[in-house]
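Posted in: Structural Biology > Protein-Ligand Complexes

Title: Requesting predicted complex, heme C in pocket

I'd be grateful if someone could produce the 3D structure tokens for the following input. Sequence and ligand are given below.
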Amino acid sequence: MKTYKLIFPLFVLLLIVMTAHAGVEQTKHNFTSATYSPNAFFWGTQQVCAFCHTAHNAGSQSPLWNHETNDLQPYTMYTSPTIDMTQSATPHNGSLVCLSCHDGTIAVNSLNNVPGPEAAGSYGSPGGAALDATGKLTSSSGAFVGTDLSDDHPVGITYDATKDPDFKSKTGNPQAYPDKLLDEGLYVECTSCHNPHDNTYSNFLVESNAGSALCARCHSK
Ligand code: HEC
Ligand code: HEC
Ligand code: HEC
Ligand code: HEC
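-- Reply #1 --
Done. Output follows.
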């Protein structure tokens, strides 16, 4: 009884913490639900967060990343004659986590730690038109980005306004723009423009891009 009295408030606290992040449940990133993610869901699954995070036995990516990633995947990076900043040979963490599903090479339900006994494997079985029979995102899906990133906004690129007057200067304050959009305070990655938990502004954008406001956080064109 004593343990119960101790554990119950902790459990309630945990629930409150979890509901604080519950926004993701009402989005296409809720793969347990054919209602919220009609094109891509998995039969027999209940844990929304498990597709991306785990409390234990996470992979090498942060934060506590549960989705299988292929660190050796070669990506075709963006090139342009007018690029001034340093384009890395591969994307960094803030893009690799997204590409682990959106490049279409790894099944959406391929996890480092499937809920239940601690083991890697497939969580549930695929349903919805955006997935193939193995649970990978199909190339015909609007959400498919692929491994060729040359037609996408550059990622894995260092933000360095000293190299181009058409960019806003960094402030050194991680809470201020443009710094707060940068991955590790340095790079432009998928997470610069997208928040995977919140679809308030559609397309999981970090903020509204009405009037290209998001673009203008970095570009001063
Ligand atoms: C589709 C994948 C996905 C799902 C589902 C998901 N997350 Fe995340 N989460 C991410 C990614 C990617 C990041 C890293 C974001 C960044 O670096 O900007 C992250 C970051 C976090 C962080 C640390 C940074 C922050 O935003 O506070 C916490 C805590 C977190 N997620 C909790 C949760 C919980 C709890 C759930 C379930 C209710 C959940 N996430 C569902 C992808 C996901
Ligand atoms: C665990 C796999 C997984 C991860 C990780 C993941 N996504 Fe997704 N994402 C999906 C699937 C599946 C869909 C739904 C596709 C559909 O409905 O056609 C989706 C939908 C989206 C959409 C909406 C597309 C639309 O058709 O409305 C955007 C934007 C998006 N994801 C961006 C991201 C970004 C950026 C990240 C990383 C911060 C990320 N996702 C991480 C699997 C994932
Ligand atoms: C510089 C900002 C920016 C970056 C970086 C970025 N996106 Fe987007 N993304 C957008 C905007 C804005 C949209 C809204 C649709 C549009 O205008 O193309 C979008 C739309 C999407 C969509 C919806 C389908 C589509 O093509 O319209 C997906 C999926 C997506 N992004 C995934 C990603 C992934 C994965 C990465 C990292 C490899 C990434 N994005 C990097 C700004 C960005
Ligand atoms: C987080 C900062 C950031 C945001 C937000 C951002 N960009 Fe960029 N963008 C960059 C950086 C850094 C480069 C690389 C510039 C360079 O090396 O000269 C770039 C490059 C570009 C280029 C290619 C320039 C070239 O020389 O080839 C275009 C076009 C572009 N961005 C458009 C957009 C649009 C449209 C948006 C809004 C949807 C956007 N950007 C949002 C940082 C950002």
